[in-house]
Amino acid sequence: MVAPLRIVDAEADRRVLEERRVVIVGGVVGGHVEDELVAARQQPPAQQRADPSVRIGLGLGQQLRAAVVAQPEERNREPRGGLSALKVQDVGADGRLRPCQRSSLRYAWMMMPDAPLARTARFDILHAGSLDPGVTSTCSLVRDGDRLIVFDPGMVERQADLLDPLRALGFDPGAVTDVVLSHHHPDHTINVALFPNARVHDHWAIYLGADWDSVDCEGRQLGPSTHLIRVPGHSAEDIALVVGTPETVIVCTHLWWTAEGPADDPYAPDAAVLHASRSRVLALADVVVPGHGEPFRPGPDTPS
Q: CATH for 122-289?
């Protein structure tokens, strides 16, 4: 994982970061020379590397021992042009952020690739989820160039509740090219096999047939107007689909169950992470498509 940075005090910060086994290398961003923050690889013992699950994890690349945390001070809504102030913090072995001395690790700037590159996609709801009676999940369809994308084919009373709306729009299940899973809870994944020809996307890989391609979701471009971002909150592996249409920027996510929240998700592993991810989405989205409800436009009463 690489985060482009402009270091405020290059020499002092370089010494501190190198002490933390973080390597600073030069790069070019937007025609200007920048620094990049690259974490050193953390190798587990050989007996652990023999475990298939550990090998898969290693395939994701370097594990960061430092994290860049966005501060919502400034934004530019131009595609791929938003600027956010950043603070560098250490990450402990338990994965939790640990504050660093401000005199050593200072504020920097990073290009935030959240806005869609284009605004040409078409968006439809196949099924609007609910929590009573019973539990059903909101399932969406996006047409973007040659991509036909289904988001969260989860629990419904009948599979026809997903397939009939799809066919009404003129598509058979075999025409779907991509399925995106917001997270791994069964109420959002149970009907993924309805789309036999689709690449399946989650937070750390793309799956097709017997192929497993380990690649992190952050910034993964699906079509000209659609990409994925990592938004941990409801679960540690949550991702969101960002969709640019001519009228709006739509974000499909389980950071909210419905327009009402809940304000504090009882399943969230870390409330602070949930609220930070919500802030990222609220800075971007004109419309939010929640996990179990109708799409809504964020407003002053939206839980953040």
A: 3.60.15.10
